[in-house]
Design goal:
Distance between the termini: 21 Å
Strand content: 25-35%
Strand order of the largest sheet: 2-1-10-9-6-7
Number of helices: 7
Structural class: alpha+beta
Number of strands: 19
Shape: globular
Largest sheet: 6 strands, mixed
């Protein structure tokens, strides 16, 4: 989707250029959200292997939820009359943006030192956004809709970021992986981890729970609107969703067990798709949904696995997954 932008007022903090240009906003989730191909052929009577954790004794893993809460501390703030960017905790891998104007269509762009531009919708109030390109200069810009596809810059700031915790962006909640200490998925993640003795076991237990209990929502995949954001509690309660939902729920469960987890969006083969990657101690980042058989790791996508009576059929090769964006 292509949007036009007209800078109609001075940009905050000394940038006073008025220019007319066109720029393609990479609305990164449109394809994934509007296609029904994140699942496989529809099978409403799926009979899966019983893959949930079977131990009845407490493991050595500390399963108490570790819920990090983002804060807007006000020590590094950039503002205009309708928006505020709080970068007080950018070192922890996130910023908080608050749009408090009256425009109904507002967008945020973040371009990191890797040159990748992320685009988000703003909904008003404090919203958390991850800084995933490591340390360096980030350009953060808020746009208001003028008319049609025309947007005007109302606030833009270059922020120098020094990440002090490389895992911070993948442990805190954000707009896409949005949870609190009261989230049902957080509590279930703690219950699943209770019987585990390592991060590997926690990942396995959470993964098995998802593919054993969740069902792919084909109707939602066909009808979901652009700008959709997962409601982790709603998805968890209904036990159904699309690829984006699966990834958000699993990321919630694992992040709150202190296991760094990326929600990734990109291509699985030819399909635009969402999945997760996890950081395993002594193993590093395991890219893509995984299965560990005690000897080796395999890619195993829960969206595809949950739609089949033979989950292992959907073991994928690493080069089948091409990551475009990370959250």
């Amino acid at each position: 989707t292509t949007f036009s932008f007209i800078i109609t007022r001075p940009v905050a903090y000394g940038i006073h250029k008025c220019i007319l240009y066109k720029k393609a906003l990479p609305l990164i989730l449109l394809s994934c959200l509007l296609l029904g191909a994140c699942g496989n052929s529809k099978n409403d009577d799926v009979s899966k292997e019983p893959l949930s954790h079977t131990s009845t004794e407490k493991g050595t893993w500390d399963s108490a939820p570790k819920v990090l809460t983002p804060t807007a501390d006000g020590t590094q703030v950039y503002t205009c009359d309708v928006a505020t960017i709080d970068a007080s905790n950018s070192g922890s891998g996130y910023i908080i943006v608050n749009y408090h104007g009256s425009n109904q269509k507002v967008k945020l762009q973040i371009t990191g030192p890797d040159g990748v531009t992320y685009t988000f919708d703003l909904h008003g109030g404090n919203e958390v956004f991850p800084l995933v390109a490591s340390s360096g200069s980030y350009t953060v810009t808020v746009f208001e809709n003028v008319e049609g596809t025309q947007y005007a810059t109302v606030l833009s700031q270059v922020i120098s970021v020094s990440i002090t915790d490389e895992f911070g962006p993948y442990l805190y909640p954000n707009q896409y992986v949005n949870f609190t200490a009261d989230s049902l998925a957080v509590k279930e993640g703690s219950s699943l981890a209770y019987y585990c003795s390592s991060d590997t076991e926690v990942v396995e237990s959470v993964y098995n729970y998802i593919i054993s209990n969740f069902k792919y929502d084909y109707d939602k995949a066909k009808n979901v609107k652009s700008g959709y954001l997962p409601d982790v509690d709603k998805v968890f309660t209904e036990n159904t969703g699309i690829c984006f939902d699966y990834a958000a729920v699993m990321a919630t469960m694992l992040r709150t067990q202190a296991i760094p987890t990326r929600l990734e969006v990109g291509y699985a083969g030819e399909e635009y798709h969402a999945w997760i990657s996890t950081y395993i101690k002594d193993k590093g980042w395991i890219n893509g949904i995984i299965e560990f058989d005690g000897t080796s790791w395999n890619m195993l996508d829960p969206t595809f696995a949950s739609t089949s009576d033979s989950p292992k059929k959907f073991i994928a090769q690493k080069n089948d997954y091409i990551t475009k964006y990370v959250y």
